[in-house]
Amino acid sequence: MLALSSATLALRVPTPVMQVGYAPAGVAAYRGGVVPTRGIAMDSAILVQGGSLRTWSYRSPAVEQVQVVLSTEGRPLDADIELWHGPDNTPCKMRVYVENGQLRPFSAVIETPRGPNTVAIRNIGQIEFPIAANVVADVVDQPSADALASSMTIQGGALRTYPFDPTVDSVEVLLKTDGRPLNARIELLQGPNNNKQVIELYTEDGLDRPFFCILETPGSGNVVRIVNTAPVEFPMTAGVVPHSINQGMPSDAILGGDVVIGGDAMRF
Question: In which domain of life is the source organism classified (predicted)?
């Protein structure tokens, strides 16, 4: 009888309940966000290790543009960038390669109309090559009036090159279509077939989602090559103009007095 009573009491013990902890008053409760460890609010870049994936989600339909900035500590940069809009819908994606992510960081604006949208960045490089990624929606670069006015048509399968002087430190690239898909390859060359930066781009609607980026062009002999990789039925318009100019460069460097070693201008 005693054993039966003990068993009955054991069955009547209340089921354990998981306790939910609450942060004390005045302490912020972080809900799955990334807490900066350096204590600097402006340093919002997140380190993406080789082979890993990071996402930035924007649920508000008021966010119509986001800017993606990728850089490294001087090592190569190799990444896949995708825009997710609904299940199994990727209206924009690009493959980015940069020879030196510190000298030439990648900066591009992605159109995100009709939220919610998610920007996914995958570091497809090796684990020895991490990437510092930053995605912002409050301060976004806009194409200049010169880039809008200098747009020229590039037929499907054709290419166009844009050489720049050594005084040009960065270049604006604006690509769009009349509503058809946009397939393009953007190359930054410094010397014959010497790719410093390559962007392979796809956009399902080049009018609703045009592509805009800023390419860093330090040194001399920089040439931007735009290739329309789509069929001949899908032309696009491209505007490539200088973004920033180095006014302090000596005149002899402009005339070709600089020495190029490894693709970078060196002064002696």
Answer: Eukaryota
Q: CA dihedral defined by 130, 124, 172, 250, rounded to 10 degrees?
A: 50
Distance CA 253, CA 266 (A): 10
- Beta-carbon count within 10 A of 22 CB: 8
pLDDT digits (tens, 9 = 90+) for 186-234: 999 998 889 999 999 999 999 999 999 999 999 999 999 999 999 999 9
Residue 98 and residue 74: Cα distance in Å, rounded? 10
Contact 197, 105 (CB under 8 A): no
Domains of the chain, each with CATH number or no CATH: 45-137 (2.60.120.680), 144-253 (2.60.120.680)
Which alpha helices (H) appear in 137-245, and where do they start and end? 145-149
Q: What pTM was computed for the model?
A: 0.76
pLDDT tens-place string over residues 36-50: 323 323 367 899 999
- For residue 250, what pLDDT is reported? 57
For residue 185, the surrounding DSSP H or E stretch is strand 182-190
Residue 17 CB neighbours (<10 A): 6
Specify the residue for token string 């390669």: 97
Please indicate whether residue 130 or residue 262 has the higher confidence score (pLDDT).
Answer: 130
